[in-house]
C-alpha cells in the first residue's frame, strides 16, 4: 500500500506571479513529490500551494519551499486581507492514503525542527503536531499576526517550538506554523432556490456549531448567553463540519458551502444526505453538489459504495464504475463536468506516469508479447492469465447478485465480487511489475565493472534484482491460488447458467500458478542463496499442488451441473 502525504503551504504572496512560480517550482525538483495546484489570491496577497507524494519526498519539498519563500518574501513590506505571520504562514501536512495521524504528526514535528534549526525561522507547531493544548488552535498561534511577533517573542509563554525568538532575524521572514491535520474537503451543495437566508438555515441545521440559541427557540427571541457573555449554540447534526449558505451569481442558485474537516467522521455522502433531509423539511430540494479542489480516492469510493449498498447492488465492480455511481448520486457533474483524473488526488499523482502493458489494447498487448523483445514474457502473461481468471469468477458473483429471485442474497455475492476485484487489481499490477523486474536485471548487468568497488556494487545490484524477479512471480502464484476460492464458490453456489465461466476462470488461475512457478524456478538458477532457493521452491511446489487440486474440484462441480 503506497503511502501518500499532502502538504498545503500558504505563502504570503498572491500578486507577483513570477515570485509565486519560483517558490512553487522547487517542489518539481524533488523526486517523489508532485505539485498539484497553485491558487493565488490578490486581495488576500496569499497563495495556497498543494503538493503530495511519498512522505519523505514531501517533507524535503516542504523544507525547500519554506526556504525559497523566506528568500523571496519580505514580511516587513507585506499587506493583505488574510491573517498571517510569516513568509510561509502555515504549512500543514495531511494524510491522503495509508497513513495514520500519529505518523503525520511525527513528520510535521521533524519538518518544524529542521526549518527552525537550519533556517532559524521561528516555528509554532499546531493542531495534531502541537506540543501543548493551547497551541493546537491555529488562531492562538497566529494571534497578533506578523505585527505582534516582536512583542510575542518577549512572552515566556509564546517562545517558538523551534527556531529563534529573535526579531532582528525574523523581521523579514516572520514565523511559520507547521501542523498535522486531517484532510479538509471543500464541498458545496446546490439548492433549487436563490435564497441565501434559506441556504444558511440548512447550513445551521447541519454544521457542528449549529445556530445561535434564542429564547423560546424562536427566530426573533433574545440571544441566550453563557456566564462569560458569549452566545450559546444549538449544535447541528454533524461533527467536523463547518458551513454557511450563500448565493452564487455565476450559477444563479444558492449553495451551502461546507468544510468537511475530518471525512472519517463526516463524509461527503453523509453530509449530502443530511442536507437533502433538511432541505426537504424546508420545502427545498438539493439538485447536486460541487467539489472545490481535490479529494482522496477513498472518499469517492466510500460514496459510491454507500449508494450501491442502498440500491442493494454488488460493490465488487471496477473502481471506475464505483466512482461513476458516486458522481451521479451526489450530482457532482451538475454545474460542470467532473473529471476524476483531475479531481482525485491519487489519479492526479499518477498523471503522466504509466503502466506500459496495462495501457495497451488487447491486440497491442498480444503484438508486444509476440515481438522480438524478451519482455513481456511468461511472468507477465501468467499474471494476466490469473487476472482474467478471477475476473470471470467476479463476473459470476456479480451476475448472481443481480439474478432475479436472488435479491436477498445480493450481499453474499457482493462480498465475493469485492474479494475478486481486489485480487484482480493486484494481479494486473503484477503484469507490469514482472516486466520491470526483468528490466532491472538487464540494467544491473549493464553497470560498469572497472574497479573493485564498481564490481561489488554491480554484483549486489544483480543479486537484488534477481531476488525481486523471483518474488514477483511467487506473488503471482499465491494470489492466483487465493483467487481460485472465488471460482470454486461461484461454481458451487453461483448462478448455474454461468458455471462454465467459473470453470474457465479456474483453468486460467491454475495456468497463472504453473506459469509463474516456471519463472520462479528459472530465476532461482542464478541466485546464490541455496537455502532461500530450496525454501521458495518447496513453497512453490505446495502452491502448485493446491492449485491443481482446486482446479480439479471446480471442473468436477462444473461437469456435474452440465
How would you describe this structure to a colleague?
The protein contains 18 helices and 13 strands. It has about 550 residues and is of the alpha+beta class. The strands form three sheets. Strands 1, 2, 3, 4, 5, 6 and 7 form a seven-stranded mixed β-sheet that branches. Helix 1 (about 15-25) packs antiparallel against helix 2 (about 55-70) and helix 2 packs parallel to helix 3. It is flat. The mean pLDDT is about 95.
Write out key terms for the chains shown.
flat, about 550 residues, 3 domains, 18 helices, Alpha-Beta Plaits, alpha+beta, Four Helix Bundle (Hemerythrin (Met), subunit A), Formiminotransferase-cyclodeaminase, Chain B, domain 1
Which helices and strands, and how do they pair?
Blueprint: E1 4-7, E2 10-11, H1 17-24, E3 33-41, E4 46-53, H2 55-72, E5 88-97, H3 101-119, E6 123-127, H4 138-141, H5 149-152, H6 167-173, E7 176-180, E8 185-191, H7 196-206, E9 211-212, E10 233-234, E11 241-248, E12 253-260, H8 268-281, E13 286-292, H9 297-310, H10 319-330, H11 340-343, H12 345-350, H13 362-370, H14 378-401, H15 410-445, H16 452-493, H17 499-524, H18 530-561
Parallel strand pairs: 5-7, 6-7
Antiparallel strand pairs: 1-4, 1-5, 2-4, 2-5, 3-4, 8-12, 8-13, 9-10, 11-12
Give a quick summary of the entry.
Helix content is 52%, strand content 14%. By secondary structure, it is α+β, with helices and mostly antiparallel strands. The protein has 3 domains: 4-180, 2-Layer Sandwich (Formiminotransferase-cyclodeaminase, Chain B, domain 1), CATH 3.30.990; 185-214 and 233-348, Alpha-Beta Plaits (2-Layer Sandwich), CATH 3.30.70.670; 362-561, Four Helix Bundle (Hemerythrin (Met), subunit A), CATH 1.20.120.
